[in-house]
Amino acid sequence: MIARLLFWLGPIVVTLVAPQAQAQSIRIRVAGSADVPLAAPKVVLMTQTGLGEAELVWDALWVDLSMSGYFKMLDPKGYVEKSGGVEPGAFDLKAWRLIDTTVLVKTRMFGLGHAACDRAGKYICVDLFVYNADTGDELSSKKYRGVPRAARQLGHAMANHVIEVTTGTKGWFGTRLTAVGNQTGNKEIYVMDSDGQGVLAVTRNGAINLSPAFSPDGGEIAWTSYKKANPDLYVKDLRVGQTRTLSNVKGVNTSPTFSPDGRIVAMSRSVGGESDIFLLDAGSGAVIRQLTKGGGIDVSPAFTPDGSTIVFASERGGGAQIYKVPVQGGTPKRLTYTGDFNIDPTISPDGDRFAFVGRSEGGFDIYMADLTGRNVVRLTQGKGDNEDPTWTPDGRYVMFSSTRTGQSQLWLSTADGRHQTQITKGGGWTQPSWSSPTQ
Known about the structure:
This protein is mainly beta and 439 residues long. Helix content is 10%, strand content 42%. It folds into two domains: 2-167, Rossmann fold (3-Layer(aba) Sandwich), CATH 3.40.50; 176-434, Neuraminidase, CATH 2.120.10. The protein has four helices and 31 strands. Helix 2 (51-68) packs parallel to helix 4.
C-alpha cells in the first residue's frame, strides 16, 4: 500500500497551454526577503463537483508560496476584485494594483467529466495564470491534469511553476522527506510531503527507530531500529514493502547515509566500545572499508555530492567537532573550530556548504559553514533547541527540528535564516531527511 501511494499518486499530466508571455519578467533573487506582494484568490470552480479538490489545490499552492520566503502573501480578505475571471481581459487588473499586488496568481478548475478536461470522468483539470499586476503583463499560463486524489500534488506543481516564472529557479515543492515521529507513543519512521501533509508510516514495530535516510532514487529508506533489542541497521524497499537487515553486529549500528549513486551506505558501527565510520555495500551489507579507527566516537557521516569525501562528527580532538575524510581512506581533517560541541553535519546539494548543530548558550542551534570550515553563519538563535538539519533539493533551504513552541516540530528556514516556517503539527517530530533532488 505504501508503495502505491508513494510512487503512483495517479498520473499528473502537465501541458503548456500557451508559451510564457514575452513580457517583462519578475526575478526575485533572494529567498527570505519576503518583499514581493503576491495575491492568489481561491480556485474558481467551473463545475458542480470538485469543491474538495479545489480547496486542496489552493491550500497546497498557498502554503508552498508562503513557505518559499519570496513573497509577502496578501490576505484574501482584502481582495477587491471578485469577478471570477482568470484569463487576460476577463477581470480588472487595476483592482489588484489598488491593494499593491505585484504577482497575481489566478486559477480555475474543471471537475470530473467536464468536456474541457476529460469526458471519461477520470481526471480533474486546473488552469493556472500568472500575471505581473504592476505592468498588466501575463507572465505564463499552464494547464494541469490529474486524478482527484492527486489534488495537492497539482497545487505543488503549480507553486513550482510560479516560483520558476518569478525567480528563474526551479521549485522543490511536492518532494518527499522522511522523519521520526512519536505520535503512537513510540519512535517510528514516517514519510511525508514537503509541506508536512500526506504522512505515511514506514515502520510500525513499537520499538525505537532512528536516523532515517532516503536512497538517491527515493525508493528505499535506511534507518536504525531497536526492534531486536540491539540497535541494528535496516533498509526498506518502499516499492515492494520488503525490509532487509544491513548491519547487526553486536553494539551500535547507526546514522546511515547513501552515496550519491546509491551503491554504498556509510554508517557508524561500534568496534571495541568505540564507534567508527564504515562503508557497506548497499545491497548486501558487506563491509567495503573502515574509514576511521580509534580517536573517540565517530558518527553522522555525510557524502559530498560527488561521492569523493565524507564529513562526520568526532570526539577525536576532545569535544565533538566536524571532520572530513576521503572515501578512499586517509587522515581525517578537522573543519570546525568555533564552539566546543558541533555535530550532525549535512552537505548542501551543490557541495559548497554544510549545515551542522552547535551547542550555544543554553541549547543547540543550526549553523552553516563552507567546506573549509570557514564563513560560519548562525541560522537559529534563542528559540529552543534546534537540531537535525537537512537540505532541500535546491540547496536554498534547511529543514530542522525545533522545540521553540514546546514540542519538537519540523521547521523550514531559508539558507540565510531570515525566513523560518513551521511545517508539522502535533509535535514529536525529529530527524528529517530529504529525498533526492530528482524525486
